[in-house]
Amino acid sequence: MKKYFPYIKDFVRRADMVLLGLGIACSLYGIIAIASATKSYSNSAQYVIVQVLALFIGIGIFVVITLIDVEIMAERWMALAVFNVLFMSTLIFFGVTSDTGNKGWLRFFGIGIQPAEVVKITYIIIMAKHISYLKEYKGLNKVTSVLQLLVHFGGIFVLLLLTSEDLGSSLVYFFIFFIMLFAAGLNFYWFVAGFASIAVVTPIIWNNVLKEYQKNRILAPYNPMIDPKNDGVNWQANLSKMGLASGQLNGTGLGQGKQSQSNALFGKHTDFIFSVIGEELGMIGALVVFALLLLVIIRCVMVGLRSKDSLSSLVCFGVAATVVFQTFENIGMCVGIAPVIGITLPFFSYGGSSLFSMFAAIGLVSGVRYRPRPEMFRSYHT
Q: Where are the domains of the chain?
C-alpha cells in the first residue's frame, strides 16, 4: 500500500482539490436536502442511498477524468462525435418519455440514464477543439470558420431536439457555444449578426419545431393568461414560490416545510430542490447554495484564465458556462421568472446522470490544472 502513497500525494498536489472539495460540499448539502424532500415517501431511504453512491462514483469519475489529458481526448474528436450521434440516436428507439414531456431518458433494469448529460461533456471537448483549431490555423473571424461552427452547433442542436425533444438541454448547449465563442475572441459584429439571425429563425422554430406544451412553458412566467388559475403549467412554479416565501430568513426547519412535505410539488427532489432548501433553511440556506455554486464558477474561470493553451482554456469556460446557465435557469424556475424546462441544479438535484456529468465536468477543469504549465506560470500556485 505504501508504494501508492507517492502517486496519491502527487495527485493531491497537482489536481484541483479546491474544485473537488466544492463539488463534494455541494453534493453533501444536496443529499441533506434530498433526504428532507423525500421524507414523506415510502422509500425515502432509497433516494439518499442512491445519491450517496452516485457521489462516490462521481468522485471516481473526477479522478479518472483528471488523469486523462484533455488534449488526448480532443485528438479523438471524431470518435467522440460518432459516440454522441449513436448515443443520442438510441433515444429514437429506446427513449422513455418523462413526466416533464421530453423523451430524453433511457431506462434499463430500473436504472435511468439521460444521454444529454453524458454527451454534454464530449460536446464541450469537441467544440473547444474545433474553435481552438480554427483560431490557430484558419482565423476564427473568417466567414468560412463561422459557418463551420454554425453547422457544428446546428447539428447537435437539431440532434437534441429530434431525439430527446429536450428544450432545456438544447439551451444549455447553446449557452456553452455562445460563451466559448466569446472567450475565444470572436468579433462583436458576428454576435450582432447571430442575434439578428436568431430573431429571423425563432418564428420558424416556434411554429414548426416546438410543441404546444413547450410553448406554454416558455410563455407561462410572463403571460398569466396561459394558466390563470395556476393549476396547470404554472402549478410547480406557484407552489415553489409559496414555499420560498414561507421560508423567510431562517426557514421552517428540515422536514418541516409545508410545500416541501406535501407531495404536491412535483420534482421537489430534482428540479425544485432549491425550493425545498429555501423553504426549510430560509434565505440563509438559499444564499449558501448560491455562494457554493458561484465559487465553483469562479474556480473554473480562474483555471481557464491560467491554462496553457486555447483548447484547455475553452474547456474550462465551457464547464463554467454549464454551471452558470443551469444555476440561474434552475433558480429562475423556482422563483417564477424563468420557464420550467427541466433543468437540474448542479450537484444539488437528485439523479446519477446529472451528478456524474458535473463531476466529469469539473474533472476536465482539474485535468487542465493537472497538466504541466508553461515555465512562466510554474512559480504561480493556484
A: 17-371
